[in-house]
Write a structure and sequence with these properties.
506 residues, mainly beta, Protein Transport Mog1p, Chain A, six-stranded antiparallel sheet, 8 helices, 35 strands
C-alpha cells in the first residue's frame, strides 16, 4: 500500500467498541480489562475519552460502567452514566432527543442510548453509550491518537487514570464457578455472529473479536441481564455505524427481543448498585458484588442497629431487599404507620423510632437495664421478614439504667442546673425555688430566708423520656454554703417530704 493509500485509509471511518470487560479497538483487535480502574480509551489534543470499569454480580468479572469525556478547553468533564444520566462535572443535564450543545459537544438522549458528537481539528467523533456498551465512531486522522481504542493491547499501567481510580481498583478477586454457566452452550450462542443474518456485515466488521469477547464473558459470568443478546447487539450496532443498514430483523432470527436494549434508561442506581434485571425480568437496581459480600456472608439485609439515648434505627439496603422480592414500601415497624425512609442517593432504607414516637416499640426494664425492641414487618402479614429462611429482622437496644447520683446545688438567683452523664444517658437536672405554688415567681433570696417562710421547689430533667424513665428523689437536704460540718436540714428523707417543701414536678 502506498503512502497515499495509507492516508486515505486513515481518513476512513472506524469504530471502537467497549462492552463488558472487552475493548475492540479501531483495528479490530480485542483486549480485556480485568480490574475496576479508569482507563483512557482515546487521547488527543483537546479531548480524552475515559472508561470506568466496575464489577456487577461477580467480583471477578468487570463491566464498562461509565464513559467520561474530558475536555481541555474549557477544563470540564462530561460523564455518561448508567440509566442515561449525563453530568457536566457535578451538574445533571436534562436531555431529550433534540441535541443540546455543551462546550462544543452535541449531546442527545433517546430511549436506548446517549449520543455525544464533537469535532476537533483533524477528526470528528461520536460516542454512543447505552449503559452497557460504548461505541466510539470517528472519521479523520488518527495517527496521533493514544489509548485502548487505538491499541487494546496497550499496557494498562500506561493508560490508567490514577487520579480517578481508587487505590484498590487493581485488586482482582476470584470466586467459585457459577454452576448455571454452560460454556459449551454459550460458545454456540456466540458463534451465531459467524453466520446469517450477520454475514452481510462481515465485509465491514470482523465478527471474530466480538465472538472472543462474548465467549470470554459468558463462560465466566451467568446468562442474566440480557447478556445472551448483549454481544450480538454490540456487533449489529457496529455494523450500522460502518454503513450496513440492512440487518433490522436480525433479532427475531437469533431469539432476541424485537427492540434494542435500553430497558435501564432512566433507572438511576446508587454507587454500590448497577441496573440489571430482577427475578421477574424487569429493570432494577441490584447490588454490586463487593458491596453485597459483607452482608451476604452474615445473612444480613443491612447494617447493624444504631442505638442512641432513647431511640434505635436500622438501615437496610434496597438492592438486597430486591434480591428477596421485597418492596421496601411494604415494610413497617410494629406501628403500621412507621415505614422506612429511602435515601435517594444511597438507596439505604432506614427504619427507626424514638421516645416521642415509639412506633410500637416494646420497652422492658429491670433494675439494671432498659431494652427497646421493635420489628420490621410486611403490610399483608404479621410474620417477620427474614434475612434467610429462619432469621428475623428484629432489632433491640439495651441500655443501663441511669445511675443513682448524689449532687449538690448552690442555688443563686433562685435556680441551679447540672448536666449529668450516666452511661448512654446525658441529661440536665434543674432545681428552681419559687415563691408561689404555680412556680411562676422565682423566690427572692436577696434578703435571706425567714424561719416561717414556705419555699416551693421545682425539679426538672431535660433529655430523659418521661414515659420510660421516672426521676425519684430519695433524699434532699439543705446545709451551709461550704457543705461541711454537721449542719443539715432534711427536706426529703427516704422519698418522703418532711418539711414545708412542695415538689411540683420531677
Amino acid at each position: 500500500m502506498s503512502a497515499g493509500s495509507t492516508a486515505t485509509a486513515e481518513m476512513n471511518s472506524t469504530t471502537c467498541t467497549v462492552t463488558g470487560p472487552a475493548v475492540i479497538d479501531f483495528s479490530g483487535h480485542v483486549g480485556f480489562v480485568r480490574d475496576r480502574c479508569v482507563y483512557t480509551l482515546m487521547s488527543a489534543p483537546g479531548l480524552q475519552l475515559l472508561a470506568v470499569f466496575r464489577e456487577r454480580r461477580r467480583q471477578d468479572v468487570s463491566f464498562l460502567d461509565q464513559v467520561i469525556l474530558r475536555l481541555d478547553s474549557p477544563a470540564v468533564e462530561i460523564h455518561l452514566g448508567q440509566g442515561g444520566k449525563v453530568q457536566l462535572d457535578n451538574t445533571t443535564l436534562s436531555l431529550s432527543s433534540s441535541p443540546q450543545t455543551v462546550h462544543g459537544v452535541q449531546i442527545s438522549k433517546d430511549v436506548n442510548r446517549v449520543t455525544a458528537n464533537l469535532s476537533l481539528s483533524s477528526y470528528t467523533t461520536s460516542v454512543f453509550f447505552d449503559g452497557t456498551t460504548a461505541q466510539i465512531h470517528m472519521k479523520g486522522q488518527r495517527a496521533a491518537l493514544q489509548g485502548l481504542c487505538v491499541n487494546s493491547s496497550s499496557s494498562l499501567g500506561e493508560v490508567k487514570l490514577s487520579e480517578l481510580s481508587s487505590s484498590s481498583c487493581e485488586t482482582q478477586s476470584s470466586e467459585a464457578a457459577d454452576g448455571r454457566i454452560n460454556c459449551t452452550r454459550m460458545t454456540e450462542r456466540c458463534n451465531l455472529l459467524k453466520g446469517a443474518p450477520f454475514t452481510s456485515c462481515h465485509g465491514l466488521v470482523d465478527p471474530e473479536p466480538y465472538v472472543a469477547a462474548c465467549n470470554d464473558t459468558l463462560c465466566r459470568y451467568p446468562e442474566v441481564d440480557a447478556l445472551r443478546c448483549h454481544f450480538l447487539e454490540a456487533y449489529a450496532a457496529a455494523c450500522g455505524l460502518m454503513g450496513n443498514a440492512g440487518m433490522e430483523d436480525w433479532r427475531s432470527k437469533v431469539d432476541c427481543s424485537p427492540s434494542p436494549q435500553g430497558s435501564c434508561q432512566d433507572t438511576f442506581c446508587s454507587d454500590h448498585e448497577f441496573c440489571g434485571e430482577d427475578v421477574s425480568g424487569r429493570p432494577a437496581c441490584l447490588c454490586r458484588a463487593r458491596f453485597a459480600s459483607k452482608y451476604r456472608s452474615k445473612g444480613a439485609l443491612g447494617d447493624p442497629t444504631v442505638c442512641e439515648q432513647d431511640s434505635a434505627s436500622v438501615s437496610l439496603a434496597a438492592c438486597l431487599l430486591t434480591e428477596r422480592r421485597i418492596n421496601h414500601t411494604d415494610l413497617h415497624l410494629n406501628d403500621r404507620t412507621c415505614g422506612g425512609q429511602m435515601d435517594e442517593e444511597t438507596h439505604m432504607v432506614t427504619f427507626g423510632f424514638k421516645g416521642d414516637k415509639p412506633c410500637g416499640a416494646v420497652v422492658l426494664a429491670s433494675n439494671q437495664t432498659i431494652n427497646y425492641r421493635n420489628t420490621i414487618k410486611t403490610n399483608n402479614s404479621s410474620a417477620l421478614i427474614s434475612r434467610s429462611d429462619s432469621v428475623h429482622i428484629d432489632f433491640s437496644c439495651f441500655y443501663r439504667q441511669p445511675e443513682v447520683r448524689a449532687l449538690s446545688f448552690k442555688i443563686k438567683g433562685g435556680k441551679a442546673m447540672q448536666q449529668i452523664v450516666s452511661g448512654s444517658w446525658t441529661y440536665n437536672l434543674t432545681v428552681s425555688t419559687c415563691a408561689d405554688v404555680s412556680c411562676s415567681t422565682p423566690f427572692d433570696l436577696s434578703d435571706g430566708i425567714q424561719a416561717d417562710q414556705i419555699i416551693y421547689m421545682k425539679m426538672n430533667t431535660g433529655g430523659l423520656d418521661g414515659s420510660i424513665i421516672t426521676l425519684v428523689i430519695e433524699s434532699c437536704f439543705a446545709t451551709n454554703a461550704e457543705g461541711g460540718g454537721n449542719l443539715r436540714y432534711d427536706l426529703i428523707k427516704n422519698g418522703s417530704v418532711l418539711h414545708q417543701v412542695l415538689l411540683l414536678q420531677y
